[in-house]
Amino acid sequence: MTRYHPLLVALHWVMALMIGLALAAGSLLLDALPNDDPQKVEGLAGHMTIGLSIGVLLIVRLLTRSLAAAPPHASTGNALLDRIGVGTHWAFYLLIAGMVLSGLGIALSTGLFPIVFGGEDGRLPDSIDTVAPRAVHGLLATLLMSLITVHVLAAIYHMVVLKDGLLRRMWFGRRT
To answer: How far is it, in rounded angstroms, from Cα 102 to Cα 71?
Structure first.
């Protein structure tokens, strides 16, 4: 077996795009908008929809991963780097789950769901920075962005230095 299941491949790339959008929207757009700006509710609706969708896709991905045969773990020729590679993938799952759960915590503790999705003419809180899940959400976002950077650099290392064809494993094609 040389490639991952096509559903895992599709989920990888769709989730990568969605996570990039959610991180960009949260850190570049939503943080810059004051809570009394009417566009903030629209931005939150998009951010929260993407976040909840990522949570559902993560569950589908973990179920598919547990049921589908996978290629053997890639080797760099260095046992420590190989262990870091395996740990990095599990760290992704934990960080993504933490982001979804902390986002839910923010929404539930501040009453965002009825305001953002329920059509209630409510007012956003003056600030959500004092809500405990918000600090967790921000920390996890920073860790996730850092891990994404390491992941991309590792992929480039495999492609340019090792030239081992690792990236083909996470693309469509014959699995054997």
So the answer is: 33
Question: Quick one: angle between helices 6-24 and 79-110, nearest 10?
Answer: 60
Low-confidence residues of the chain: pLDDT under 50: none
Residue 159's alpha-carbon distances to 3, 9, 20, in angstroms, are 16, 18, 22
Please give the structure tokens belonging to residue 57.
Answer: 């896709």
Q: pTM for the complete prediction? A: 0.92
Query: Can you tell me the distance from the alpha carbon of 148 to that of 156, in angstroms, rounded to the nearest whole number?
Result: 12
Specify burial of residue 38 (Cβ count, 10 A radius: 0-12, 13-18, 19+).
Answer: exposed
Contact 144, 99 (CB under 8 A): yes
Distance CA 10, CA 13 (A): 5
Paired tokens of 14: 């769709």
CA-based radius of gyration for the chain: 19
18 neighbors 57 (Cβ within 8 angstroms): yes
Angle between helices 6-24 and 132-156 (to 10 degrees): 130
pLDDT one-digit tens code per residue, 88-98: 999 999 999 99
What is d(CA 61, CA 92) in angstroms, rounded to the nearest whole number? 12
The CA distances from residue 58 to 47, 92, 96, in Å, are 16, 10, 8
